[in-house]
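User: Show me a protein chain along with its predicted structure.
Assistant: Here is one chain, sequence first, then structure tokens.
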Amino acid sequence: MFYAPVIFSSIGMADTALVNTAIVGAVNVIATLVAVALVDRAGRRPLFLFGGAQMAASQVALAALLGAFFRDSSAAASLPRPVGVAVIAVVCAFVAAFAFSWGPLGWLVPAEVQPLETRSVGQSINVSVNFLLTALMGQVFVSLLCALRWGIFLFFAGWVAAMTAFVFFLVPETRGVPIEEMRLLWASHPFWRRFVPADEARAGGVEDGEGEEVALSLAKK
């Protein structure tokens, strides 16, 4: 988003860099509206996982396209039109995937998974880390692009794969679960229940062994 014109110019698309950036921005807006329409129908985890898979695949495809064309210094300064169109399509696929999944859900889910007692603190940490890392990425991206060239997209694909795996194994589905009952999800999760005291599930009148059943019923709503 910050350096779209720089990216397009650096791969030989300087003449259409601003137009391509406008196209990417339009895709971002449209896909965000898709997220608004689907988030309470499809659920958080499916959007996270599908979006992450599409993002990683787009990064790998972009690296493959640019790596194949710029594999040696004798490559032409500008991409052939078919390759340029493919690059724009892959970039739009990545931006669309981010906009309907990790973009909005990165703000929504951290607020949902916190119980009322720690929600304000947890969300403030989430916002601070998000802004700090965004600022850091804005500072180092151009240097990484110059150093890694097309390999930078494989670098990011690895991080996307890691964070998608994190959601798959460690993030519960929060659709339809009231914040007051969020402790039941943590108490019944295969991993996090070892860190949540058993009395957390009983605090709301849930007996031993019933936390998982109640949590699953809430998650299915």
